[in-house]
Amino acid sequence: MKEEYATVPKLGFGCMRLPLTDPKDVTAIDVEQAKQMVDAFMQAGGTYFDTAFVYHNGQSEVALREALVERYPRESFTIATKCLAWALPDAETAKACLDTSLERLGTDYVDYYLLHNVGGERTKKFDDFGLWEWAQEMKAAGKIRHVGFSMHDGADTLEELLQAHPEVDFIQLQVNYLDWESPVVQARRNMEVARKYDKPVVVMEPARGGRLADLPEAVAAPLLTARPDLSQVSWAYRFCFNQPNVMTVLSGMSTLEQVKQNVAEWREHGGAFSAEEQAALDAARDVLAAMPTVPCTNCRYCVKDCPQQVAIPEIMNLLNLEIQTENTEFAKQQYSWQAVPGRASDCIQCGACESMCPQSINIIEQLEKAADHFE
Predict the structure, then answer these.
(1) What is the pTM for the complete model shown?
(2) What do you get for the CA distance between the two ends of the chain, in Å?
(3) Which residue among 175, 183, 249, 284 has the highest number of C-beta atoms inside a 10 angstrom radius?
(4) Beta strands in 8-57 (DSSP E)
(5) CB–CB of 50/15 below 8 Å?
């Protein structure tokens, strides 16, 4: 990893869940509290701020201008923002996102620009719109300093993307110790591919949407025994801080207290795990692994002949997530966007999936459970 990426502070500020003055209005950002949060982060040595065209319906970028850009020298921080081309109707609209983001942010350039959530059918939009080439043109024009992409997909997809686009400067991946060996998320395998191509990684979801900050009692026990002075979420961040090729680890912070706790633990305890700490984390992961989960390996044989195109592996993974986190509501939230194109209730019980499953999983029964729990 190039030195310029290796020197980025390991804790990044995610601006997707900024504090609100009205909990029912995602655009009502509490800018005064956001200023205090930015100040605490900057004073601790943080520099990387991550937003996107769509966060808070566009107001995240506006709030970042008010809380950061208008109050600090431009060279003292870096900003990442993103374009979701797969959700847009045409190339012109997708390309216009950059200038809109720059205007909202009040800056002439963005340090890190991401083609956001590529992979699967979504990649075709980026290809058809010519965004890969366009992003390099914007980099040459000085509007973008570093071009990257983010994805929620497997290692084979990541390798294909990096082979097709070796020019990208960095990538953003979902990485955490809960998903490390997940056959669907493939966090470990994705990190291995990133290292193979020597691409710096921005880590998203290090605490799995907050689930690793609220662990089941049996999972938390070895961590609490080893370090009763540390928060549960600090273990999740440190796991990611110390992975090879990690540029920064994003924390979506919503309160000043969260910022203060996260930066304190990052500055004071952000180094490599001691032998005792590593043993404690291994013990916690062993508890997770021992839970009675569905033995799906994401081979995807089940989906090939499914007449309803049910997202079977993804749904099996969410059933496992429900078990491992003991939180049905969290898994249900994930289901709302991961169970595509086919939901569990779309199953017509034809049995084609079960006849193809190498693990002999009772898929029809599991889909009925998923429909009952998540729909």
Answers:
(1) 0.86
(2) 44
(3) 249
(4) 11-14, 48-50
(5) yes
